[in-house]
Amino acid sequence: MSQVIAVANQKGGVSKTTTVANLGVALANEGERVLAIDLDPQANLTMSLGCQSPDSLPYTVSDALEKAIREESIDPLEAVAT
């Protein structure tokens, strides 16, 4: 069974990104499947997990949200970076 864990806080600088990155890696090391979604426009989580140039990614959460607003179909595999 899957479980959703959300880490959120309005205030910046409270270790949200660090918490998500470390929790995700720890769960993955235990054999769990992890999906980390980076909604921060600065893409700090994306960079923390190894993508050093997130601006060069061909597809972003913003693209998926734009398609959803336009009621266009969304291919989930377009937005997954491994």
How many angstroms separate the termini?
22 Å
Query: Helices and strands: which structural class?
Result: mainly alpha
Q: Give unreliable regions as ranges.
A: none
Mean pLDDT: 90
How many β strands by DSSP?
Answer: 0
Shape: globular
Describe the protein:
The protein has 82 residues and is an all-alpha fold. It has one domain. The protein is 34% helix and 0% strand. The chain is built from 3 helices and no strands. The longest helix has 14 residues.
Which features does this protein show?
3 helices; single chain; mainly alpha; 82 residues
SSE order and pairing:
Elements: H1 16-29, H2 44-48, H3 61-69
Tell me briefly what this model is:
The protein has 82 residues and is mainly α. The chain has helices at residues 16-29, 44-48, 61-69.
